[in-house]
Structures are given as C-alpha cells and as structure tokens.
C-alpha cells in the first residue's frame, strides 16, 4: 500500500472509532467504500481474522502490513486504545509523505531546468534539420534516461534484496556528506516521536524502543536498537540505554535524563523529537535545493555542450548541402 493510502486508511479508521463505531463496523465501511483497492483488501483481511476468532493484529500480519503497524495495533489490543493507535500511525505516514515532498521539491527546479533545456534543443533541431533528426535524437535521449533509471532501479532492488544489504546501505547513508546529517535527524525525529507516543499509550520502555526502532526509517539503527531493547526490561533507564548511541546527541540525552528524574519522560521524548524534526526539516529546505543544483550542474553543462555541438554539426551540414547544390559544376 502506498504511503498516502496508509495515512488515509488510518486517519479514517481513527475517525470512525471516535464516532463510537466498533472495529468490525469500521472495517466493513472501509472494505465497501474506501475507493482504494489496497485499503479494501487490508480491511477484508482483518475482518476475516476477526471472524475466525483471531485478533485484529493477526489480520494485519496476514495482509502483509509493516511490522510497525502490527506492533502498535497489538499494543492497542492490550490497552483498548485503538483510536489513539490509528491516529499515531496516520501522523507517522503523513510525516513520511511530508519528508518525501521536501526531497522532491528540492530536486524539482534543477530537473525542470534540464527538461526545458532538452525540449528547447529538440525544438531547435526540428526547425533546423527536420523532424527525422529531431525524432532520432529524442529517442536516443529517452533511451539514455531509461537506461539510467533502470540501472538505478536495479541497484535499489539489489540493496533491498537482503536484510544485510539493507543494513549496510542504511549505515553508509548516515555517513554521506550533507545528506547523512539530514537523514540522521529525520531518523531521530521518527524514533523519539514514536517512542514517546507508544510509552504514553501504556507500553513499556522496552516495547516503546522496539516499536520506535521499527518505524525510525533506518535499517541499521533499527537492528541495533532492537537487539538491545531487552536491556530495558524491568527498571532499565532509557538515558543509560541510549548513551553512546548515534540516535541521540548529548543535548537530547540531557533532556531525556531530566525527564526521567522529573517523571515527565513522555513529554521530554516528544520535545526531543520536535527539535530533531525542526532541524531536519530546516536542513532539507535549505540544503537540498543547493546540493541538487550542485549535482545537476555537471549534467547540465555536458548536455548543453553536447546540444550546441550537435546543432552546430547539423547547421554546418545543412549549409554545406545548400552550397553544394548551388555550385554550377558538380563532379
């Protein structure tokens, strides 16, 4: 299911729960009138699980829902707070859409400039040498872009083919210049927001860390934090658990320690999440457009000189042909 559909699905489910409708009735409404096939299929899968005596979270699991969704809804089954759980998931997926939109908007302007330049080039080529040459050049450009996109897709598929590859790529991504810091802050924001919400919903610290790790968006940090979450069982301290972990910086750790001492850990976790979110969003808005332009400048320069050279050759060839025809003697 697409991120947009996931956000809409959980937002509608939360609103139906608030209206006093039972789980079965809410899912029946979505199954019959959601307008999105993936949402209807998920609702039907959960209904089938309920009809056979299984828990709703089993239905989510049978439908192939993400581990985060299954974990949060399993916690909601224990606490009875389904409306809050669906609201949390809706906000989580809405934030993912917002981050994706920030990445797209950052790269939009330079890519549009490149596309406009190519369109102008092919228009000029059409008027100078005719439709045949312009069409051949257009097909060549499409083939080149298609090959580049196919290679990129294969690399992504290879990276996601195994858990070890995902963890390696996620670890490398945090070390990238410029982008690594942005990705880390966004990961931190997701982690602490989910941890705060899950903990305030009645989950233990160990459960909060486990579920927040699943939804943080980085496979490397997810694996590392999940492997150690058992250390929080009992009277484990979150600030002690997080010491030395890259998921938090010294200032964030200090706020969490203060929250544990004052008994306001949930509020402090959400405060830390907000700081990371603001920093990550600000960096996205300021740095990504600049970096996008820097990355696309070499491509634009190469394409520009290629177009100028190709047009010059075409114009020269046409002029030469006209001169050859006008000669009185043609051997």
Instruction: Specify the helix fraction band.
Output: over 70%
State the helix count.
Answer: 14
Mean pLDDT figure: 78
Can you count the beta strands?
A: 0
Runs in which pLDDT lies below 50 for 5 or more consecutive residues are none
Proportion in β-strands: under 5%
* Form type: elongated
Series of H and E elements = HHHHHHHHHHHHHH
Class computed from helices, strands and strand pairing: mainly alpha
Radius of gyration: 27 Å
Distance between the termini: 70 Å
Largest sheet, described in full?
Answer: none
3D architecture notes:
Helices cover 82% and strands 0% of the residues. With 331 residues, the protein is mainly α. 29% of the residues are buried.
Short description:
This protein has 14 helices and no strands. By secondary structure, it is an all-alpha fold.
Features:
single chain; 331 residues; mainly alpha; 14 helices; 82% helix
What is the topological layout?
Elements: H1 3-18, H2 23-33, H3 37-51, H4 56-62, H5 67-79, H6 82-129, H7 131-159, H8 163-173, H9 179-200, H10 205-214, H11 219-228, H12 238-242, H13 250-262, H14 265-326
Helix pairs in contact: 1-2, 1-6, 2-3, 3-4, 4-5, 5-6, 6-7, 6-9, 6-14, 8-11, 9-10, 9-14, 10-11, 13-14
């Amino acid at each position: 299911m697409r991120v947009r559909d996931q956000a809409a699905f959980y937002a509608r489910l939360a609103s139906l729960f608030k209206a006093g409708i039972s789980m079965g009735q809410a899912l029946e409404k979505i199954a019959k009138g959601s307008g999105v096939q993936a949402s209807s299929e998920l609702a039907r899968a959960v209904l089938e699980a309920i009809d056979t005596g299984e828990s709703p979270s089993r239905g989510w699991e049978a439908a192939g829902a993400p581990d985060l969704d299954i974990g949060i809804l399993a916690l909601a089954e224990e606490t009875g707070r389904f409306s809050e759980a669906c609201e949390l998931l809706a906000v989580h997926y809405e934030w993912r859409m917002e981050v994706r939109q920030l990445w797209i908007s950052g790269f939009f302007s330079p890519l549009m400039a490149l596309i406009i330049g190519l369109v102008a080039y092919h228009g000029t080529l059409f008027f100078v040498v005719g439709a045949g040459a312009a069409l051949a050049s257009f097909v060549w450009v499409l083939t080149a872009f298609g090959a580049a996109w196919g290679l990129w897709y294969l690399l992504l598929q290879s990276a996601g083919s195994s858990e070890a590859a995902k963890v390696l790529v996620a670890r490398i991504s945090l070390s990238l210049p410029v982008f690594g810091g942005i990705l880390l802050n966004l990961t931190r924001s997701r982690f602490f927001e989910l941890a705060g919400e899950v903990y305030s919903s009645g989950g233990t610290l160990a459960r909060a860390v486990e579920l927040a790790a699943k939804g943080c968006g980085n496979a490397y940090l997810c694996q590392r934090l999940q492997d150690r979450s058992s250390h929080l069982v009992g009277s484990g301290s979150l600030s002690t658990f997080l010491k030395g972990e890259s998921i938090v910086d010294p200032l964030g750790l200090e706020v969490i320690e203060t929250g544990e001492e004052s008994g306001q850990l949930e509020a402090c976790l959400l405060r830390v999440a907000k700081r990371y979110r603001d920093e990550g969003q600000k960096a996205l808005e300021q740095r990504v457009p600049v970096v996008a332009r820097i990355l696309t400048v070499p491509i634009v320069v190469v394409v520009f000189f290629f177009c100028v050279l190709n047009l010059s050759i075409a114009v020269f060839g046409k002029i030469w042909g006209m001169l050859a025809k006008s000669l009185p003697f043609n051997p």
